[in-house]
Amino acid sequence: MRYTMALRIEANPISGSCIVEKLHADGSIASRQSFRNVTASICRNALKDVMVRIEAQKMAKLLILPIVSDNVTIHRKFVKDGKMTLAFKKQLIRVMFSNCAASTLSTFVKMLIIKTTVITPDRPKIALREKQLQQNQGIENISPLLVTRGGALVRKGGASPLKTPNSKRIRTISANDKENCGPVGRMLHAMPISLSKEQREVLALVKSGASIFFTGSAGTGKTFLLRRIISSLSPNSTFVTASTGIAASHLGGSTVHSFAGIGFGGATVSSLAEKTRKSPAMTNWKRCRHLIIDEISLLDGTYFEKLEAVARILKNTDKPFGGIQVILSGDFFQLPPVSKTGQRKFVFQTKCWNDVINKIYELKEVHRQKDRQFVSILQEIRMGRCSDDSAKTLISTVLNKVDGDGILATKLSTHNVDVDALNEQFFRRLPGETKVFKSSDSVESMKIFLDSHLPIQDVLRLKVGAQVMLVKNTKVADGLANGSRGVVTGFDKVGLPIVKFRRGITTSIGPEKWTITGSGGASFSRKQIPLKLAWAMSIHKSQGLTLDAVEISLAKVFESGQAYVALSRASSLQGLKVLDFKPSAVRADPQVIEFYSRISRNGA
């Protein structure tokens, strides 16, 4: 029996800014007004006609416009950036929304599309109907709809799936659809994966305005949740950062250092604040109301303290972090911070931590590994423990056959020099011609910056037989995600690499685009083939990845959390091979253990 679960689409109003343009018949602009703190909602009037109701404090009167399929065009190309335009043909009005929370705007647009697509049954003509459409009588909010994962729409209350007048079920929008919704409109977009109960609780805390640190072991969906949080906040006042360039690139943000404009924080707080006032980064601070920092475990505590103090100076307030809502994500049991002074301090050890962070939430449900035995072992390793049974299981993985179908397991190493040597050694052994792929960068002079902040380099060398890893989500539904392993089997007619992946998929890999924000808010982009040589990679660079086949040597472990990060990259015990496991390689920082013990005692 097929099982489908109903998902609710709420007709929540959107908030943001808008520009209202009144047009001449030829499409030229007759007048133009800008409004802030705008609220727009989908309503019905007394005649049950669907309307959009727009209001703002400085708006002379409510703007109520009919949503009729042959009258409204929905421009939704930039919904993910919090922007949308509605063009009303008969009224000669164009409304351009901006600075809306992307997730709320996305749902709002889906509801508009449904309302312009689903035609109500014919009814008798009513005198003066056109006049009544323009009157603000009997406005009521639209009720929510329900959508099943199978794609069918049902009204609240369980009525039959909605159909178009020709009795065909409403289809979902394909990725190839154009960005404009014409007279018939675009259909409902496929619903995103739903959040778990604990993830919804974190999102609710963020929406309440709390400054929060949410954590969890590897595979609990921290990055997935972070993306949903980002889409729920106003893009104009939200800055997405991470402690490393690669982590920032996965979220489409910048490093916290680029955002802040204080470099590595080597000077005094007053000097850093003065320097920032004169830099392009001051624009960031003026706009910032929500600051997100991912992989917070890698950020040095001393730097965090200076960042907080600079925020108070630049925002001219004594409120913690200058009154900015701070959203931190990461796992302190993973790799520790790197300090320029050599005196390492975790951010939770800083004096300002308790003032800045209002709520701490630990995610417990593991989504990456489904094997309960493996999850249990990883939870032990995370805490710096390793029972005899766990040790025996990990030692036995040396017999696992993780290579298959010409695809070798990625070797994780503690040191970059070993990684580079292994990849070069294996690449040179391959016969045949070397194909060179050069990136296309938006600013040629920023190559070094992009090399250090993105998971792909300026130049990629490939041969037939090269072991590679996908470094961007391309076709997640087909299993082609960041970390997917494969082997180059050839090159197609236009010269693109053909890769055979472990899941049996063979496909050409075309260039993808990465964008990262530098200091002052300037964005830089790179287009490159989303592959890297993957005979070996460092444990440090593997943090955040899921690998379906991995071979690990822990003989040279020198840092707390290294063994845990390496082992937790594997998606299953069957895909893991540990060459030299010894329980002594398992280490957790005592200060981190104590911090998480306090979290547990306080019921986070």
Q: What is the secondary structure topology, with strand pairs?
A:
Elements: E1 6-9, E2 14-23, E3 29-44, E4 50-55, E5 63-66, E6 72-75, E7 84-88, E8 93-98, H1 102-117, H2 129-133, E9 140-141, E10 145-148, E11 153-155, E12 180-181, H3 197-207, E13 212-216, H4 222-232, E14 238-242, H5 245-251, E15 254-255, H6 256-260, H7 269-277, H8 282-287, E16 290-294, H9 301-315, E17 325-329, H10 353-356, E18 359-363, H11 372-382, H12 388-396, E19 410-413, H13 416-429, E20 435-438, E21 440-441, H14 447-453, E22 459-462, E23 467-470, E24 485-491, E25 497-501, E26 506-508, E27 512-517, E28 523-528, E29 531-533, E30 536-538, H15 539-542, E31 550-552, H16 562-567, E32 576-578, H17 590-601
Helix pairs in contact: 3-4, 7-9
Brief sketch in words of this structure:
By secondary structure, the chain is α+β, with helices and mostly antiparallel strands. Helix content is 25%, strand content 25%.
Could you explain the architecture of this structure?
The longest helix is centred in the N-terminal third of the chain and has 16 residues, at 102-117. Strand 25 (497-501) and strand 26 form a beta hairpin. Helix 3 packs parallel to helix 4 (222-232). The strands form 7 sheets. Strands 2, 3, 4, 5, 6, 7, 8, 9 and 12 form a 9-stranded antiparallel β-sheet that branches. Strands 15-14-16-17-13-18 form a 6-stranded parallel β-sheet. The protein has a 5-stranded antiparallel β-sheet with strand order 26-25-24-23-29, with no helix packed on it. It has 3 domains: 6-181, PH-domain like (Roll); 197-363, 3-Layer(aba) Sandwich (Rossmann fold); 403-548, no CATH class. With 604 residues, it is an alpha+beta fold. It contains 17 helices and 32 strands.
